[in-house]
Design brief:
This protein is mainly β and about 180 residues long. The chain is about 10% helix and about 60% strand. The protein is elongated. About 10% of the residues have low confidence.
Amino acid sequence: MMRAGITLILLLTFSLVQAENVGTGLTSALFRFGLAYPTETYNPSFGFNLGVIPLTPASNLKLGADITYWKVKYDYYQRKDNPNDDIKLRNVGANFSFYFYPLGMEGREFDIYFGGGLAINYYTTDYPDGWPEKDKSKTNLEPHLDFGFEYPITRELKANIHTRYTLSDTDTFLLLFGAIFTIGK
């Protein structure tokens, strides 16, 4: 059901795309940092996101690629005086996304976008020394949904608030703040 919904969103987005001002080549680079909130019992923690926007195939559509990293922990016995019961979960993800700008991309005080894509996520779980569980890792191909705002500061620099929800067995919500640097048009 979820895959059908994502496919429907993709089809609707591409049917609404305006085909003028098509551009290729590296147009923007981005850096974002913020909070990672896994939906399991892990505590929120900081993460960061680096990426590029190599394609602008239409005046209201961008295609991007980025790398995300975050690390969270879970205090198994809920005792702050015992650091030996922390289970740590790390994620490194390579994300391929589309960003749809329903109002276009230029000429406003701020731009709104939404989108989604696929990520290759590598998870590692580290258990405390002496526990019967062994450290483990896994790699998943997972969909994600994006929503955000861009606020132009100069012609080459935009402030950015970006949210991402990754759909997986460890669903994760990211709230990121950062900057988008225009390299070329």
